[in-house]
Design a protein that fits this description.
The protein has 13 helices and 3 strands. It is mainly alpha-helical.
Length: 288
Amino acid sequence: MVSKNGKGLAWFKFFVADWLTSPDVLRMTAAERGVFITLLVWQVESGGSIPKDTQMLAKLTGFEQRLLDRFFVYNWHLFPECPGNPRRIANDKLVSICSFKDLPEDVPIDKIREEEKRQEKDRLDGWIGGDATSDIAEKPGALTKGTPGYYEPGQYPSGKEKARPKEIYKHVARAWATIKGVGAICRYPSKYPEAWEDLCTTKDADLIVPAFELWAVKEGGTGTNQFPISDFLRVAHQYTVQVIPLNSTGVKNEQADHDAAKEAYLESLRQLAAAKPPVVDEPGPEAL
């Protein structure tokens, strides 16, 4: 059965146990869970994918764009780009349990992702970043001081916690002018300050600035954009996980980073559960 618009499905399977036990869902706020399930519904309604642009998603879903941007800062991995169409994104698990008209039925999505990973590994083995970032490094581990993406602990002091977002912003603004030219202006992300503050709280400046540099070289455009940080925030995690591997072996290790974060979160849940007082099965005052 198809949906009213004739593109998607009228319904889809929803595994309750997966939702209730998913580490990704468990760490989401109530608002983020609402965004997640709504995006899944629209993916089904739209025939297998949704727009990557959050402005278009805001019009489609009715959510504020700033809420969507904040969601994707931490959950971009739940909706990777569609093979062959970087302007569309899709949840892989939903694709695997549904049959959509705009995706080839004879090529399972997991096979497509495996082929993408293989091609990415082959590319990184011989050339960091390919054509898009060829001016960053020619060989794995070739990043040197002064090169966009170079990482060194302590190279970007960020001060006390309350002042950290503005201090890191100053480093990022200088990096933007260095990469795009002295006339390039980088303004403070006043439109989405919460997402920037969250990132500065959870990541060090030594990691954020090189990640921003990598993004600026690959996706930053000509430098006419005066609010590059707002665009960077949408894909920040994709670049922060690349910094240290690129400065060591040159090979990205996003899965290892994700697994480590997942295990750390599950361990925190186990510690919270262990710290709870035992449940005493005794009648309360209302039973008297």
